[in-house]
Every structure is written in structure tokens, then in C-alpha cells.
Design brief:
Layout: E1 13-18, E2 34-35, E3 38-39, H1 40-46, E4 53-58, E5 74-78, H2 86-96, E6 101-106, H3 114-126, E7 132-137, E8 140-149, H4 150-162, H5 169-174, E9 177-180, H6 182-185, H7 201-207
Parallel strand pairs: 1-4, 1-6, 4-5, 7-9
Antiparallel strand pairs: 2-3, 6-8, 7-8
Length: 208
């Protein structure tokens, strides 16, 4: 994880880390996998040191070890619809949040770059008319990481879930979205490692 200096969001911002998945494809709790000597979920949280609040959404049936994520201002949030995927986890995080702006990341992206996260929030608060700002990659907007307007996004997420939708990408199809051009965000993350997620042992081996 490269450190481009402290993250300064410019207005109260909640960081939401989605960590409620069952890790079925990994075959072990991937939140605890050691990545360069640090548990993967811990690495993700450490990319968010200056967020006003950090909410980690978990399945209550899969608690975290007591020695993980002890630092303030971290708060564990129970998933409201357990087993229903990351869209439901996002609903739980947005429901718990109070700030107008939320930065949303998954708990399985251990190489998130702080400068990339800063770009997302800065674009949302300083010039975007969209409700959600994400990254463009290979010609497609990526659902994670993203900065969003809490209230409007929560309304849309809940409507999708109540309608039977479970795909996170569906939010991008129904929300006002701006995707940062790849040439823009790669100026601070030229290797694009912020978008590397770890779902399987093969992903971990490829990431090195």
C-alpha cells in the first residue's frame, strides 16, 4: 500500500468497509489472510486513517477476532440482510452512517491507494453532479471503491433490494454515476493495484 500522505476529505465523511461475505471461494476467512504480514481487512482499514468514522459491516454469525480492528473510530455494523451479498451490506453501512458523504470499499482490496480514495471523494464534493463517483477500468465503471451521497444512494439501494435485486453492479445502472477516467486515477496508482480484489487462492497467487 503506497502512502501518498494523509487523507483529507474536506467535509465529514464516513468510510464503509464491506466485510460480511462468507469467503466460500477462498475456502478460509479471507479477512484474516496475511498480506505482506498484515491481515487483509486490517490493511483495508489502514487505508482510511482520517475518515471521520469507519464502519465495518459484518455478518453477526461471523464475528472478527477481538484483537483485530481495535483502533477508534472504527465501529462494527451488523448486516441487515445476512447472506444477501454486498448490496445488502452497503444498505447496512449507509443506514448506520450520518454524514452526507460515504466512501465505500470492500474488505478484500488490500492494495487500495489512499490518493485514489482521496480523488473519489474530492470529485464528489467539489464538482460532480452525480450521486456516486467510481473508477473507470477497461471501459467499464467499477462498483468499488466509490464515493457516494448517502441519502440518495440509500434510497436507491433499498429499492433495489426490496425489488429482489442482489447484484451490486445494478446500483451503477440505476444511480447517477460519474466514473473517473482511467488516465486520471492512474496518475496516482499507475499499476492499478487499487482494483485488485482477492476472492480465491488463485487471485492471491497472481497478485503476488
Amino acid at each position: 500500500m503506497r502512502d501518498h500522505g494523509p487523507m483529507t476529505f474536506g467535509q465529514p465523511t464516513t468510510a464503509i468497509v464491506l466485510a460480511g461475505g462468507a469467503s466460500r471461494r477462498m475456502g478460509a476467512d479471507k479477512r484474516l489472510l496475511a498480506i505482506e504480514g498484515t491481515a487483509m481487512l486490517q490493511r483495508v482499514v489502514e487505508a482510511l486513517p482520517d475518515a471521520d468514522r469507519i464502519f465495518v459491516v459484518i455478518d453477526p454469525a461471523r464475528p472478527l477476532p477481538p484483537d483485530l480492528l481495535l483502533a477508534a473510530p472504527i465501529q462494527l455494523v451488523p448486516d441487515l440482510r445476512t447472506g444477501e451479498g454486498p448490496l445488502a451490506g452497503l444498505e447496512a453501512g449507509l443506514t448506520a452512517a450520518a454524514d452526507d458523504i460515504a466512501l465505500v470499499v470492500p474488505g478484500d482490496m488490500p492494495w487500495l491507494d489512499r490518493a485514489v480514495l482521496r480523488l473519489l471523494v474530492a470529485r464528489l464534493v467539489s464538482g460532480s453532479a452525480a450521486d456516486l463517483v467510481c473508477l473507470m477500468h477497461d471501459g467499464r465503471p467499477q462498483p468499488f471503491p466509490a464515493a457516494c451521497r448517502r441519502e440518495s444512494t440509500l434510497v436507491r439501494v433499498t429499492a433495489l433490494l426490496d425489488g429482489g435485486e442482489r447484484r451490486l453492479r445494478a446500483l451503477l445502472d440505476h444511480q447517477s454515476v460519474e466514473a473517473l477516467d482511467e488516465s486520471t486515477w492512474r496518475t496516482v496508482d499507475p499499476d492499478g493495484r487499487s482494483l485488485l480484489d482477492i476472492d480465491t487462492p488463485a487471485d492471491l497467487a497472481r497478485a503476488g
